[in-house]
Amino acid sequence: MARMKLGDICEIVTGSTPKTNVIEYWGGNIKWITPAELNDETFIITDSVRKITEVAVKKTGLSVLPKGTVILSSRAPIGKVAIAGCDLYCNQGFKNLICSNVILNEYLYWFLKGKYEYLNSLGRGATFKEISKTIVQNIEIEVPDIEKQHKIAAILKRCNDIIIKREREIEELDTLIKARFVEMFGDLEQNPKGYHTRKLGSLATKISDGVHAKPEYTETGRPFISVVNINTGKISFEGCKFVSEEAYQAMIKSTHPKRGDILYTKVGATYGIPAYVDTDTEFCLYVSVSLIKPRHEEIDSRFLALSMAMPYVKRQADSRIKGIGVPDLHLNQIREFDIICPPRSEQEEFAAFVAQTDKSKVALGYISC
Predict the structure, then answer these.
(1) N-term to C-term CA, the chain
(2) DSSP collapsed to 3 states, 269-322
(3) CA angle (212 as vertex; 211, 213 as ends), nearest 5
(4) Domains 2-143 and 184-342 share a fold
(5) pLDDT per position in the chain (369 positions), as tens?
(6) Triad 15, 16, 18: Cα angle to 5°
(7) CA distance linking residue 305 with residue 235, whole number of Å
(8) Residue 251 carries which DSSP code?
(9) Domain definitions of the chain by residue range
């Protein structure tokens, strides 16, 4: 098996954008794509949101990407991948690879798909990160014979199809949990059942946030969690930063997350997202994340976490947000959130339903007990 540079086995082509103020360049029938049109599930792309004209192609010297070209976004963001399902064009946010007969395009697609973190580490630039044509040309790849490439690509596609299916099943289970919540408790903003309301601060033994100064990161060590690690509503350690044991021990003296606690994003565009701590993995927090330690004898943690994800709490966060540039929720504002409190027996019934649903997620291989 040979190890080769992409520049030796592919022609690397960069896209460009016709002048947007020239009317005759736009509104044609020629496909022209941007990185925003690719997502994690994109495999073959055959259409585009915007179209350009024959005039744009002739007058601006755009390079066509022939059917089968491997399309790689090189900035904003780096690392999105697709295969051209027809001849098309693209903007300057891509470095595209026209494969020689040495390498199969689907094999290259799966190689690049698995190198997202690596590709981002190669990004250069002060304003925004970008990988240059030269960087892409010098990326090395193991190149087995074509027959083996076909086999590897087929296996990886089957695996990816299974992953996508499981992810969709997980999403359906999450939707089921939210539907059950509304079925049991109604629209809590309207509070049709007349449940008692309490301030969040009275339902918690402590509401704090993470360290206010960025620590020195380490290659390995204790996970250091910020908003980006919980902005999906779940804790993700993938791609997180690490700190030393000494730094970790200093941080947890004031804010120590434990299973059954709730994290809540408080800084940035994705403020107002709760995440239930369902892991025994030890980690520490940045200031962008608050930690809520519920009074377990008074409110069920799972009920509280999902309640805080409901619109009636998010609207309270929206009305309290501070900051002209970067949105920022203060801890005293979070403590003042009004929380609807059904009888404990109803909360526990809901928590049992969530636990049973989580067992289904375990069966799908996505979360651990």
Answers:
(1) 41
(2) CCCCCEEECCCCCCCEEECCEEEEEECCCCCCHHHHHHHHCCHHHHHHHHHHCE
(3) 100
(4) yes
(5) 789 999 999 999 999 999 999 999 999 999 999 998 998 889 999 999 999 999 999 998 899 999 999 999 998 789 999 999 999 999 999 999 999 999 999 999 999 999 988 998 899 886 678 999 999 999 999 999 999 999 999 999 998 888 788 878 777 877 887 888 888 888 777 888 889 999 999 999 999 999 999 999 998 899 999 999 998 888 989 878 999 999 999 999 999 999 999 999 999 888 999 999 999 999 999 999 999 999 998 999 989 998 898 888 999 999 988 766 678 899 999 999 999 999 988 888 888 888 788 777 666 554 443
(6) 145
(7) 13
(8) H
(9) 2-143, 184-342
Token code pair at residue 274: 């709760």
Domain 2-143: CATH class, spelled out? alpha beta
CA distance 258 to 271: 21
Q: What is the CA radius of gyration of the chain?
A: 25
By DSSP bridging, strand 89-90 and strand 26-33 are parallel
The H or E element that residue 364 is part of is none
Helices (H) and strands (E) in the chain, counts: 11, 19
DSSP 136-154: HHT-EEEE--HHHHHHHHH
CATH of 184-342 given 1.10.1040.10, 1.10.3210.10, 3.90.220.20, 3.20.20.220: 3.90.220.20
Partner residues linked to 328 by β-bridges? 267, 322
Q: CA geometry: angle at 314 spanning 281 and 240, to 5°?
A: 30
